[in-house]
Every structure is written in structure tokens, then in C-alpha cells.
Design brief:
- The chain is an alpha+beta fold.
- The chain has three domains: 133 residues, Glutaredoxin (3-Layer(aba) Sandwich); 109 residues, no CATH class; 108 residues, Tetratricopeptide repeat domain (Serine Threonine Protein Phosphatase 5, Tetratricopeptide repeat), CATH 1.25.40.10.
- The protein has a four-stranded mixed sheet, with helices on both faces.
- A hairpin with a 5-residue loop joins strand 3 and strand 4.
- The longest helix is centred in the last third of the chain and has 18 residues.
- The two termini are 36 Å apart.
Length: 389
């Protein structure tokens, strides 16, 4: 679901070359990209990041993925916690991992991708970025070699983790009040890195969302929107579902400056957040079920699994759990992913279908062994089945 958002609309501007200082690996990657007329994909990772390892092992190493992208992409992996990796992560405001930065051989930035997706979904996404490149559409990063970042931002990046310093709330709030925070490249990069939550920021977040989206991509725009929108939602959990629907639609139309596609994408991200935070699981399940039927192309198996697991953890309504079970039955019938099989077994357990739960849990463990994944959670589920039955 998250990855599919990038495929809905990408309104990007044509810009000149970015002359950021590069490390040797990236420089070699750019030379290779230039020689074979490909794009460069820089994979920012860390040693501790689980999904970084999964992305490398299950997506980038997939034979069909490599065949699909070999003529279009040159891939370089960059440790974001080493010196040269830190410099580039700071320059582009990389704030979560894995994040991949797509650029041309002459260093025009096409887009960034956050998170993990299976090889077919990721490949489809990269195809869309290639089409943007062929159309000459790029993100609007400047040509400056260096940027004037505030001192507190510089301290957020350091090879020595003990010397990393995160700004306090007062420092962040003071920066957010400055006009340049919302009107300059440096400001947007800083805002997309810091953590701030206050509903008083919402007007500025809405006012600047579309500009940030078109200039720097939806990843940064969404991070900035959350600063004001999340506390606004959390402060209004007692209003009716209909009232919140109407309110969010009005806010998102304002943020998207009338672009209905962008507004719909934002709505699909934050309306379910309201439902789960307000513990309206019945409405959440119905909304998911309707979206799966109306827009199946916007959902991947991981997104369905996340929704089903949310209901398993938080809800014991039989009708709702059966809905989630039906979603997951279709998922486990189409892939061999351990996490999905574990969710399916867990839902069967929650519905007191213990024999079936045991069978599916054992299947999940076999999948985990085959892919060398930790299956201790499923073993605990088997223990609960044994005690409960």
C-alpha cells in the first residue's frame, strides 16, 4: 500500500545538475551509469536495519528483478553511518532506512524510495521512475555544493554515535517559526529530519504541502504534514467517523491545492490512522475491505498483512477477524512469506479454530526455516494453542 502510493502521481520539476561531494563508490557508480546510459540507485542502509537486509537479500538479489533492471539501473549500497555515507545522508535529509535515492549520471535527482517491497512491486516502481527520467522530470534539488544547515542539524549526523545530538523541542520550535524553514531547500531538508508534533503547525503544513510534494517528493511532504496533522487527529478522536471523514477531505483538498489524486492519496494514509487510533476497528475493517475490492492494484501483500495483524492484535470481534482471515487466505495462497503465514495462523487461533491454527503455524515455521528467519513468535503461538485446546 505504501509503495503503491508512489505510482499514483509524481509531479516533478526539471532542474540542473547537483554538484554534491560524492564518495568513491558513488563516483564509480555514476561513471558506470554514464557509460551504460542507466540511472544510479543509491541504497542507504545501516548495519542494524532489518529491512535493509531483507531488501538486499529478497529484492535486489532476485534474478527476475536483476534482469528487469539491468539495463536501466546501476545499484550502489552506501552505509549511512559511515563518514561518506553520512555526508550524503545529511545532504539529502535521509531520515529512515532503507531509503534509496535515484539520480541520473549527471546527478539530477529523480526520486527517493523509502522502505521494503517485494521485487515485482519494487520493479514496477522503478519502471515508473525510469519513465519520469525519459520525460525529463526530476526533483528540484539545487546545484549548490554545500548548504547552510543550522548547527543543530549538523550535530544530528556523526560517525561517532556518542557525539550525535538531537535538538530539544524548543530548538525545533524556534526553527519552525522561521520563514526560511518553509521556503528554502535547507529548511525543507531539516523539517523532514526532525521530530516535531504540535497541532499549531497544521496551517503551515497544509499551506506548504503541495509545494514540498512537487519540489522534493511525497516522502518529505508527508513527514512534514505529520508534524501538525497527527496531533490534530489525536486531539479529535471523540468526533464521529463521518465528521472526521469530512474534515480530512477538506484539509487534504486544501493541502493538495485542488489536485484530487494527491488529496485521495493523503486521505488513504491518514483516515485509517484515525480509525485505529480511535479504536474503531469495525469501521477500519470495513474501510480496508472496501478498498481491497475497489482498488486492489493499490495493495500489496505486505500492506494487507499489516492491516490484518493490526486487527489480530487489537480486536476480538468475530465478524471483523473473519474479514481479516479472508484477506490473509488470499495472501497465503499467492506467496510463501513467513510473516504472512504466521498472521494467518494467528487469526485462526483468535477465532478458536485451533486444529487449523496448529497446521498453519507448522507451515509458517517451515517457511521460516527455509528462509532462515526467526520463528520464535510462531513457536509461542503453538504453545498457546497447546495450552488453550
Amino acid at each position: 500500500m505504501i509503495i503503491a502510493r508512489f505510482l499514483t502521481i509524481l509531479l516533478l520539476w526539471e532542474v540542473a545538475t547537483l554538484n554534491a561531494q560524492l564518495n568513491p563508490e558513488v563516483a564509480k557508480g555514476l561513471e558506470k551509469a554514464k557509460s551504460n546510459n542507466s540511472l544510479l540507485l543509491i541504497d542507504f542502509y545501516t548495519d542494524w536495519c532489518y529491512w535493509c537486509k531483507v531488501l538486499e537479500k529478497e529484492t535486489f538479489s532476485n534474478d527476475r528483478f536483476k534482469e528487469r533492471t539491468k539495463d536501466k539501473y546501476t545499484i550502489v549500497r552506501l552505509n549511512a553511518e559511515k563518514k561518506s555515507g553520512i555526508d550524503m545522508a545529511k545532504r539529502f535529509g535521509i531520515s529512515s532506512y532503507p531509503t534509496c535515492l535515484i539520480m541520473t549520471a549527471d546527478q539530477k535527482i529523480v526520486q527517493t524510495i523509502g522502505g521494503y517491497a517485494k521485487s515485482d512491486i519494487y520493479g514496477k516502481l522503478l519502471d515508473s521512475f525510469w519513465n519520469l527520467h525519459k520525460a525529463g522530470k526530476y526533483l528540484a534539488y539545487s546545484t549548490k555544493q554545500t548548504l547552510n544547515f543550522p548547527e543543530f542539524y549538523e550535530k544530528m549526523y556523526n560517525v561517532n554515535k556518542k557525539e550525535i545530538r538531537w535538538p530539544n523541542a524548543q530548538t525545533i520550535d524556534s526553527f519552525i517559526q522561521r520563514p526560511e524553514a518553509w521556503t528554502t531547500e535547507e529548511g525543507i531538508i531539516v523539517l523532514s529530519k526532525v521530530y516535531a508534533r504540535n497541532k499549531k503547525y497544521l496551517p503551515k503544513c497544509l499551506q506548504n504541502y503541495h509545494w514540498v510534494y512537487t519540489q522534493f517528493g511525497d516522502k518529505k511532504a508527508d513527514h512534514i504534514l505529520e508534524m501538525g496533522l497527527i496531533p490534530f487527529i489525536e486531539d479529535n478522536l471523540d468526533i464521529s467517523t463521518t465528521a472526521m471523514q469530512d474534515t480530512l477531505k477538506k484539509l487534504f483538498n486544501l493541502a493538495a491545492e485542488g489536485d484530487t489524486k494527491i488529496a485521495a492519496v493523503i486521505y488513504d494514509g491518514y483516515y485509517p490512522y484515525f480509525l485505529t487510533t480511535a479504536k474503531r476497528y469495525s469501521d477500519y475493517a470495513v474501510w480496508i475491505d472496501e478498498n481491497l475490492k475497489l482498488h486492489p492494484e493499490e495493495w500489496d501483500n505486505e500492506g494487507i498483512n499489516n492491516a490484518a495483524w493490526t486487527l489480530y492484535e487489537s480486536c476480538r470481534d468475530t465478524a471483523i477477524l473473519n474479514l481479516a482471515l479472508n484477506w490473509m487466505k488470499k495472501v497465503v495462497d499467492t506467496d510463501d512469506e513467513y510473516n504472512h503465514a504466521d498472521t494467518y495462523a494467528s487469526l485462526l487461533f483468535a477465532l478458536h479454530r485451533y486444529d487449523e491454527a496448529e497446521t498453519e503455524a507448522l507451515k509458517a515455521i517451515e517457511l521460516a526455516k527455509a528462509s532462515k528467519k526467526d520463528y520464535s513468535a510462531t513457536q509461542k503461538l503453538l504453545n498457546k494453542i497447546e495450552v488453550t485446546r
